[in-house]
Amino acid sequence: xxxxxxxxxxxxxxxxxxxxxxxxxxxxxxxxxxxxxxxxxxxxxxxxxxxxxxxxxxxxxxxxxxxxxxxxxxxxxxxxxxxxxxxxxxxxxxxxxxxxxxxxxxxxxxxxxxxxxxxxxxxxxxxxxxxxxxxxxxxxxxxxxxxxxxxxxxxxxxxxxxxxxxxxxxxxxxxxxxxxxxxxxxxxxxxxxxxxxxxxxxxxxxxxxxxxxxxxxxxxxx
Length: 222
Ligand SMILES: [Ca+2]
Ligand SMILES: [Ca+2]
What we know:
The protein contains three helices and nine strands, in the order αβββββββαβαβ. By secondary structure, the chain is α+β, with helices and mostly antiparallel strands.
């Protein structure tokens, strides 16, 4: 070390103080950061007030089959997504146009799902309904509590919000809906009844509600 650098007692004092600060401050902030992580449960930032929005997209598909009495139709929906999956809606609809209007002649369907080909294997659904519009309707939640509505989150970290809204990879794969047709007719059994009504068109439609997160800090109100 040259005499120029340590030319005076004051210069030495400044140098020593600088070294002390250089060592102490990073250590101090490191300890504070670790402490914040321990209480906040996440690596990114402090607890604050956030506006949480969901940027949404829909994936839809639809298939119609003509089914005779007792016939089963298998309807497949392949769902792949890079976005998070909020929920999936399945609607089964049919209209008995051979004997319109409610009554004993109205056709009906039994609906069963098989979600064994879907990641996370959601619980299967089943229902029966008349062919007078929507015969069966299911909504299968993939991200718990997701309904698409934005909200204000207070006193949490950003990473806590990101951890909450996650489909954990569920919902991808082959969604199978099986529909069995029950043709009814007011005509006498056999030939005449069969002439009046022997089948019906059944449409299954799917809507997958997808989302990405949009989180922005909100200034505290004074
Ligand atoms: Ca009918
Ligand atoms: Ca019919």
